Every structure is written in structure tokens, then in C-alpha cells.
Amino acid sequence: MPHSLSAQKRVRQNERRREYDRVVKSRIRTARRAFQKAMDAQDLEAARQRLRTCARLLHRAAGRGPLHRNTAARIISRMQRRLAAREKAAAAQ
């Protein structure tokens, strides 16, 4: 248990921050699953929408701290590549 007032305050701040980070990361995971579900269903329009939603969440998380900006960029890039490959395959058919 922290003894000093500043240490007690840090514990309170860390609890709030941990809860916020947990919520943000959960929303990102949910958005990524929705994108993957749209991709699996071959629904490219829905996948594009889900990608935009997910990218928005990732950029916001990278800007506010829960995720490193390179992590967010890497996840977005992989999703965009997956969608582009699926669109290319659909156009070829």
C-alpha cells in the first residue's frame, strides 16, 4: 500500500488509465472481428466501412496512449492489404 499522498494519487490515476485502456482495446478488438466477419462473408462494402471504423479507433488509441502509433499503423496496413487483395480477386472474376 502506498504511504505518501503522491503515491496514493498515482495508484488512483493508474487505475483510471488501466480501465480506459482496457475499454479502448476491447473496442478495437470488436471492430477488428467485425471487419474479419465482413471479409469472411465476402461483403466488401461492409468490410470497407468496418475498416474505416477500425482505423478511426486505432488512430485515436495511438494518439491518446493505449497503443503505440506503429502498432496502430501496422494493424491498419494489414487490414488494408487484406481488403485490397480481396477486391482485386473479386474484380478478376
Write structural notes for this entry.
The chain is built from three helices and no strands. The model has no long low-confidence stretch (mean pLDDT 97). The longest helix has 36 residues, at 5-40. The N and C termini lie far apart (64 Å). It has helices spanning 5-40, 44-64, 69-92. The protein has a single domain, classed as Ribosomal protein S20 (Methane Monooxygenase Hydroxylase, Chain G, domain 1), CATH 1.20.58.
Short account of what is shown:
With 93 residues, the protein is mainly α. The chain has helices spanning 5-40, 44-64, 69-92.
CATH topology-level fold name: Methane Monooxygenase Hydroxylase, Chain G, domain 1
CA-atom Rg in angstroms: 18 Å
Output the CATH homologous superfamily. Answer: Ribosomal protein S20
Query: How do the SSEs run, as a string of H and E?
Result: HHH
Global outline: elongated
Range of helix content: over 70%
What average pLDDT do the residues reach?
A: 97
- How many distinct domains? 1
In total, the number of strands is 0
Give me the oligomer status: single chain
CATH class, named Mainly Alpha
Which architecture per CATH? Up-down Bundle
Distance between the ends: 64 Å
Outline the low-pLDDT stretches: none
Largest sheet: none
Beta content: under 5%
